[in-house]
Design brief:
heterodimer; A: 90 residues; mainly alpha; 3 helices; elongated; B: alpha/beta; 41% helix
């Protein structure tokens, strides 16, 4: 009998092992890993988010360039406006 | 094999326990709601001086921050309410939730509120209360129970509602 672990041995997941994994997953979800509190910034923790540097439109030149690029690329669908390109498809 | 492994999930006991745990966790995360007892201010370790006596009085607690523009906009209205009801057993206080003590101090210097302001420097009180938005104002009755919660500040409408809520509590008979 060889001590070498074969591929078949490694893939042999017993019902007991599977049950342990399922229980660990459920426990993790119930104890916080599944909680949105871990990723949600609370209303009283938003000082950094309200900082001026977090504003996407803080640089007028960058905003103008980004808008120009956007409406140039998306002109066929009306860009920022509601109208179409005149083809009658919108 | 999979069927055998999953068979234990069919147990009502497992689902019952999981459901109970979820209910308990959800209740703990929900924070202070209407009808709940408002946490004691004396034990909240608020900076900014002695917290006024609130026993048997109507308490209005406004949570604000120096980085919150609507909070700043609410200060004149809250100041007027505070002075108008000062002699009628109503205590209005502002609790800053600023993480930065320097930002809090600078803001107070620039915009001193016309009502007692305190700093929840360690954010103990705000975590216990779990305010839903900034600002949020809690109106607490003479028994210490939250009766009204005002989320955000919407100008004159908010001021009118706050005055109306305070008047309603003042109209109630004292026990």
């Amino acid at each position: 009998m060889s001590d070498k672990i074969t591929r078949n041995d490694a893939m042999n997941i017993t019902p007991r092992t599977l049950r342990i994994f399922l229980l660990m997953g459920a426990a993790a979800a119930l104890t916080g890993c599944g909680s949105t509190r871990l990723v949600r910034v609370q209303p009283w923790e938003r000082a950094t988010l309200t900082d001026y540097v977090m504003r996407p439109d803080r640089d007028p030149l960058h905003t103008a360039l980004a808008e120009h690029t956007y409406f140039s690329r998306e002109a066929a669908t009306g860009g920022r406006g509601v109208g179409g390109s005149g083809c009658g498809c919108n | 094999m999979l069927k055998k492994s999953l068979s234990f999930l069919g147990s009502a006991r497992v689902f019952g326990g999981a459901w109970a745990a979820l209910v308990v966790v959800s209740a703990a995360l929900a924070g202070v709601k209407v009808g709940d007892v408002f946490p004691a201010l004396a034990t909240a370790q608020l900076a900014g001086g002695a917290v006024p006596a609130t026993a048997g009085k109507i308490l209005v607690v406004d949570f604000w921050a120096s980085w919150c523009a609507p909070c700043k906009a609410s200060f004149p209205a809250l100041g007027k309410i505070s002075s108008d009801y000062a002699t009628r057993d109503v205590v209005l206080i502002g609790v800053s939730v600023d993480e930065s003590a320097a930002a809090y101090a600078t803001f107070l210097k620039k915009t001193p509120p016309a009502f007692p302001a305190f700093h929840d420097a360690k954010q103990n009180l705000v975590r216990a209360v779990q305010v839903p938005t900034m600002p949020t104002t809690y109106v607490v009755d003479r028994q210490g129970r939250v009766r009204f919660v005002h989320s955000g500040f919407h100008g004159e409408a908010s001021e009118r509602r706050l005055r109306s809520d305070i008047d309603a509590l003042l109209a109630e008979k004292t026990p």
